[in-house]
Amino acid sequence: MTVPLKSSHLIAKAKPLSPLALGFYGSLAAGLMTAVGAFPVLFGRVPSQSTRDLSLGFAAGVMLAASFFSLIIPALDAAEPMFVNEAAPAAIVCIAILMGMGAVALMNEMLPHEHFKTGREGPASASLRRVWLFIIAITIHNFPEGLAVGVGFGSGGVEGGMPLAIGIGLQNAPEGLAVAIALLGEGYSKFRSWGIAALTGLVEPVGGVIGAGIISISEPLLPWGLAFAAGAMLYVISHEIIPETHRNGHQNKATLGLAIGLVIMLFLDVWLG
User: Fold this and answer.
1) Pick from 211, 146, 175, 138: which is nearest to 58 by CA?
2) pLDDT band at residue 35 under the 50/70/90 scheme
3) Read out DSSP for 75-116?
4) What is the pLDDT of residues 165-208, one digit of tens each?
């Protein structure tokens, strides 16, 4: 007589996902929210500029909270047991933050790209079509987010990565909408605008695998990786998102969005972490 397998027995036999797999799937899910956020352009529904600035402020608040509560504080916690000197953990985290900011700043200088409002940056890029310059700019923006999610999963498993994946996913939605609307303004069709916006989120799994992989190689790299990812995101917040939300005179709504995003991400980090 055959005895049916119980679901608990199947669960017990299921192998847990590796940090690399968690980093990939978590950052992929977060990146796909870019496509979800851009959906309104397919139906001809474009929110007002003030609403878009509020939503981008929300994205900045989520990233700001994630940088400190999900990356910098865990980096300090990871570094403290490694050293007797109390100043060493703080020094390591500070250096890694600056390295992360410097890495994204270097990408900004080395890669030709174009922002919708401020125009071209980086080296001469006359041979590249304008849409590719936009895509490169968004890639520079999205890569640190995927890196942060991957580092979160690589260092703390599901508990460490889930708050980051949810938070980054939430803030990717308004970013995807902003990209699609800007492409509409450049004369692209609504389907092409949505498609390009959706594709820009697919760079995040690349960052996710790299982040999880680095952390998996060596435990001493953990505080460096966490703080580096935080620094990369802090640069994007300061250089890209906040200035964008203040260009159209909606600073108050953008600041409100930032406050809401910050406290929601803080809540998610405490609740899920």
Assistant:
1) 175
2) very high
3) HHHHHGGG-SSTHHHHHHHHHHHHHHHHHHHHHHHHS-EEET
4) 998 998 889 888 888 888 887 788 889 989 988 888 888 999 99
Task: Mark 199-224 as b/e (b = at least 16 C-beta within 10 Å).
Answer: bbbbbbbbbbbbbbbbbbeeeebbbb
Tokens of 261: 């995003």
Total number of domains in the chain: 1
Contact 64, 157 (CB under 8 A): no
Is 2 a domain residue?
Answer: no
Q: What is the pLDDT of residues 239-251, one digit of tens each?
A: 888 888 888 888 9
Q: How confident is the model at residue 120 (pLDDT cuts 50, 70, 90)?
A: low
Q: What is the DSSP letter of 60?
A: H
DSSP, collapsed to helix, strand or coil, labels residue 119 as strand
Quick count: other Cβ atoms within 10 Å of Cβ 109? Answer: 10
Nearest 10 degrees: CA dihedral of 265, 69, 54, 247? -160
Q: What are the backbone angles phi and psi of residue 5, rounded to the nearest 5°?
A: -75, 135
Spatial distance between the Cα atoms of 37 and 23, rounded to a whole number of angstroms? 22
**8 lies in some domain:** no
Residue 245 counted as domain residue: yes
Whether 151 maps to a domain, the answer reads yes
Segment 205-240, tens digit of pLDDT: 999 999 898 888 877 888 999 999 999 999 988 888
The domain of 216 spans 18-81+88-272
For tokens 């933050």, name the residue.
97
